[in-house]
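G., the chain you wanted modeled:
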Amino acid sequence: MATALKDTLSEPRYDADQIQVLEGLEGIRRRPGMYIGNTDQRGLHHLVREIVDNSVDEALAGHCDHIVCTIGADNIVTVVDNGRGIPVDTHKKSNKSALEVIMTTLHAGGKFGGGGYKVSGGLHGVGASVVNALSEWTSVEVVKKGDTGVYRQEYSRGFPTTPVDVVGKTLKGTHGTTTRFLADPEIFKNGHDYQFEAIAHWFRETAYLTKGLKLTLIDERTDQEMSFYFEGGIVSFVRHLNRTKGPIHERPFYVHREVATPQGAVDVEVALQYNNSFGDTTFTYANNIHTAEGGTHYTGFKTSLTRTINDYARKNGFLKNDEALSGDDVREGLTAIVSIKIEDPQFEGQTKGKLGNNEVSGAVQSVVNEAFGAFLEENPQVSRRVIEKCLNAARAREAARKARELVQRKGGLDNFSLPGKLADCSERDPAKSEIYIVEGDSAGGSAKQGRERRFQAILPLRGKILNVEKARLDKMLQNNEIRTIITALGTSVGEQFDISKLRYHRIIIMTDADVDGAHIRTLLLTFFYRHLEPLIRHGFIYIAQPPLFRVGRGKSEEWVYNDRELANALKERGDNVELQRYKGLGEMNPIQLWETTMDPSRRTLVQVTAEDAQAADETFDMLMGAAVPPRRKYIQAHAQDVQNLDV
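Predicted structure as tokens:
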């Protein structure tokens, strides 16, 4: 009974006085992660995207054709567009200027059916106000179309510091919005580390998807400037993605049509081109938002592509009536962009990763069925090359089926069917389990002895796995090491992939800190990205960070992970130090490996993400694909970086 008693004096009070009501934008500053994901570099870039997206919406509405984003030497971001300009007249309900309402009120804007925008990417109406709330200060200048007055309002951490005033005049015919902000260091404690290349990748993608829009990015910190404008739109996008993959037909297929549905019009735009690779590179977008998890537009596209190619193949004698190509067969070597625009898109979750509008699937199917069928009929030589590639894929699929079934039979959760080289853990909850994929038997032996057996499994690899960028599924499944990985993880691969069967929620790649180790790590990442990509998307893949040096003096020792840390350690410890360089994991004994690389309380893990799918696809194709010149050019451009890997 005594153990059940509670010390009532120590309990916190919980009554009406503890209920807080956050006013205005205070809730955003209290919980910024709810609105921008996090407060590191990704969240910082999100601020830029929210403001630029508002300008892109003006372009989608046909009122803007140039957006300029400048990152100042003082880390002030300025976004200028030549759109209609944010309204500045009085908002009747609030009796404030519409500009102030938009900048200081959540869910206020012209994207909720009021007629301001037919289609929009910023559907939640939180963009400008979130940026304002998370900035030390913000300034907005507006020139309305047909007005020469320059209207300005300034803010501090979401609150107006000035009224909306006319601060000057401009030339007749000038119009648009200029937004300047300085991200708040109280929120972004790691500083203003804007990455030019990351923002440029997104600008390029947006320019492809918005025909006739020019986007300019200027970085005054490094004197870099890039502009993006693509008259060909998504056709240019497909050509760009295919430039190193060996297209098997010169002219991409393209269609752009609007389909009327009971729920409203669906604008469908599709471009595709086949190449000599073995992968499927299809990117889907809804109102210019990349839907990484697909959705109804992707489902409609896949269904219509498979049906159209099968119908053509049967009609022209490539297939018998009882034969059929699978979806995987017709998508091998495909590069495609599927972009739809719709007035009221329904996304799954705030991240907008998947489109859910049912009417979109039928709209995309009807457009692709008709237009791609006509394309095949009008281009018989192209059609023959496409069908032959699909037939070759079907033959390889049949060969892969037997190999995959072998992997599946060994892929159950029963310990007796797991790979013999796997040292499994006793924990059966995947969320509490982790597996180290280790380079070599020597390092694997140390890891097995040093691990925490309850939740850490060890899978040593022998040599380098197959480069899957250059191989079909059937050849890939003949590789013993790849089969072992698939079996150990339990998810299977291809059409049978099931993430719910994943046995470990932390998959940790642990390789030597040398060139061979980096190569093995790249091969593994290529395999995961091309064949088990959801594992990356859900944050299950990590890279271990073993130390490079041990610095000892007397009974004390320090582990350092790069040359910069080494210089500091030697400077602090002075003379007569013992220095040991670890070229391989196998050089560390089990205790050292545990203390430096495997102990959850002390280790450092790098989580693998692929937020920019287009950039990731291009990088893997360049580094691991068949084309040599792009890889040589990249190595030459980054030769100095390679020499300074330890820095």
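Residues 26-228 form a domain with the Heat Shock Protein 90 fold (CATH 3.30.565.10).

Shout if anything looks off.
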